Structure formats: C-alpha cells, structure tokens
Sequence to fold (514 residues):
Amino acid sequence: MLVAQDATVAVIDADSFQFSLNGKSYPCVVGVPDFTPPELHGKNLASVQRTIEHDNFGLAVAIFHLLFMGRHPYAGRYNGPDISMGEAIAQNRFAFSLSRKATTQTTPPPGALTLDMFPAAISAAFENAFGPKPAARPSALDWIQALNALEGSLNHCSKVKTHRYPSAARGCVWCKLAADSGFDMFPDLSAVEPNVPTDARGTEQAIREILAFRFPTVADLLPAAAAPRGTSDALREAKSGKRGRALMGLLMMGGAVAGFIYAAPAWFLWIGLAIWGWVTFSDRDVATGPFQKAFKDADERVQRELNAFVQRNGMAEVVKVRGDLDVAIAAYKGHDNALARELMVMKSNREARQRQAYLDGFPIRRASISGIGQAKTATLISFGIETAADVSQSAVRRVPGFGEVLTGKVVAWRRGHESRFKYDRTPNAQDVSDEKALRGRFAAEKAKLESSIRNGLGTLKNARARLDALPAMAKSDRALTDALAARAQSEHDLRELGASVPASAVALKVTPPQ
Fold:
C-alpha cells in the first residue's frame, strides 16, 4: 500500500494472483516472505493452492503495519539464538502476543505500541490472526467491524490536539512514545502565531497577590489548652514511691545506730547498714526521663491530630493549588530566558538538523544493500530504523539478526549518503519556519501559564473564608483539644519536677492530594 501526500491510499505491485479457469488452477508462484503465513513458509508456492485463510494472514499484517506505525508483528526480540523474520513466522512467534507470551518467548521492539493499548476486540483479532489456527483468522468483514469500533472509541489528547488514542490505553500513547523517543509521530503542525495576546500587567499583579497569600500557622490552629488541675497520677505515684524509700533509709540508719550501741563488736555490719540507709534516704528525687518521654509522646500525638484536622477540612487541596502556582510562577518568570536558550541551541544545531533532514530523505525500504532483503528490511523498520537518519552502529546492532557484518553494511550505506551532504549556510525558508514555530510554541506556553496563574489566584481567594474559619473549628475539635490537654499536663509535670521542657516539634505538615 502506498499513501500519497494528500492521504490517498493505493494498492501497488499487485501483479501476481491465483485464479481458476475451465477447471484448471493457476497458482501464484511468488510471495513476499513477511506477508506469507506460517503454514506456507518453506513450501514451493508453485504447487500451493492458496485459501482465504492465507489471504487473511496478509490482510492482518497490513492492518498491523497501519496501527503499529510500520512495525511487523513478528519482528521482535526472541529469547534464544537469532532467527530470521521467516523463521519467526514459520514458528508462530508473534512478538506482541499477550496470551502466548510464554510460548513465543518473544518480546516487542523497544518503543513500540502493545496490544493492551487497544480494545479487547482488536487485541483478540490480532491474537487470532497470528495464532496457531489458520481458520481463526479474522476476515475482512471482521476487521471492518473491529476497526469501526476502534475509531468510535478514540479519545482526544488533552495536551496535543492532533493526538487521538484508544480509550483502552488509559492515557495518550503518542505523548508517551514522544517522551520516550523525542519524536512526535502526530505533531500539531497548525500555525501558531508568535504574538499570542497576553496580559503581563494583570499576571504580575496576580503573582504579587499569590505570594502575599497567608496560610494559617500552627499558632493560629492550635487553641490554648486549659490549665491542668494539678499533679498527674503518674507523678503523684512516682513521688509517693520516693517518700517510702526515704523512710526506709531513715529506719536503716536508725538500726545502724542501735547496733553500734548494743552490739559494737559487729561494727562493720552497722557501717554497711548505715551507708545503705544513707544511699536509700538520699535517692529522693523523681527521675525526669519517663516524664520527658511522656511529653515527647504527647507532642507527637498533637502533630498527628493536627495533620488529621487539616486533611479533614480541605487545607490540603488549597496547599496543592499554591504549590502548582509556585511552579507556574517560576516557569513564567524564566520564560524569556528559556526562549533565548532554545533559540541559541537551534542556531548552534543548524548544520546537524540540516544533515538529519537530508539523511531522512533516504528510506531504508528503497536501499539496495547486499545481504539485506525484504524480511530484514522489515525487521529494521520494526526496530525504528526507517531512514538513513536513524542508522547508527549501536542502533543496528540491537536489531535481531544483525551482527557485525550486516551492521557494517547498513552503516556504510548511511555514510555513503552522508558523504554527499553539503551544508548550506545561507538562511532559508526552513530556518524562518523553525524559528516561527519555536516562538509560537513558547508564546502559547506563556499564555497558558498566565491563564493558570490568574485562575489559581481565583481559587485561592475562594478558599480564603474556609481557611479563616479553621482556627474556630480547631477549638471544637475534640481529638485535637484532648491531645493538647495531654501535652499541657506533661509540661506541668516537668515544671513541677524542676526539669526543662523540650521545645515542641509540631509543624504544619500538609500532604497534597495526588
């Protein structure tokens, strides 16, 4: 099939057919290997009676080419020794199969679309077309129905207006491939005027208001806790225990004195008892460690309850808006410098871009390279090598079946064309077009940033009343006030012990929604 510049589709090279006349069959004695079904590989085509199932295989290959951007269904990476395209077809190693992945032991080329990006009907049709049962191959009518359903289910990309993608893909496949490869297969070529109307003064005013926008602080949101009623039970218990030890120490020292009086010969025992009693009596201070830990635990509880409070009351969404606005403001302020850098890069890369455009005019399909026929050419194309511009030593070596010798031939073919390239330093219409397109893209991005900034300010203003109401709401939040009361009690206990009170680690931590 040949697609012309005006999108006219034509069938070419249709010069060999099978037909019957007067009871005699006239076979089609030739065939293209990459369109020949598995059951006919290795057979003498002059003695083969073609069937509709054979034609359905070739039809499926053509449709696969169209939907998968020129990839061949059997051009993949086999988990074994290198095999040719014909061997892959003969062995039924459909590279994109999902249901027979363990059997085919073959994976698609990098950067290719996959079956799970298409509706189930399309995926099943290809699995049947390239499966082990020829009778299961979809007919032309089956494909019409599946393709009509696919067309009706296409989604519009929200970023690039020329992108349409299957709804089953759960995202724009063309944006993903462009991000991975740096090449957009369906770019928006509509003219974008560099002087898109903007509102610099209004945007700068919006930025000032956004930067001045005040969020509630920890002090605003944490109500003052009621003063504790007195010593906590834990501290009272600890003090009581220390009083008991002091009394025991006094008794032990009194016993030692009595021993010295009435049983002086055992003086060494009474000295030990006196020392023990003194140590016990002296240990009257309550250890502050457990109460320091109690304060830290109470402070962490306040943090948890504050986090839960702000999440419940919508502050997270407002914080996300502000975070997105900070990113947009930074991009807006750096817009002019970014444009200047891109223009400089464009001028410095002019020769390389001109060379790339020149090499892109030599398709691999039309190349005459010794040892590389139609099947190997189809494999190269499936692995992204479509023109001389795509050829490099490393890129060709990654293609199955291309060792050092064949790789060298492909690279030499590219170098032959490259040697005839002549750089034209004279500014031309392409330079003007490229610069206009770049300035247009940046102008559109700047207008979009301005719109985002002004709209974001409106969102912040709408949230002002809700944010201002949070301190009053915090006072009636039982979980938060209970946590504050527990921390206040811990602080009171530490002060009663004469110990230092650690600084609170509570901060306003808001996790923006994803």
Summary: The beta strands are 2-3, 9-10, 19-21, 24-26, 77-78, 106-107, 154-156, 164-166.
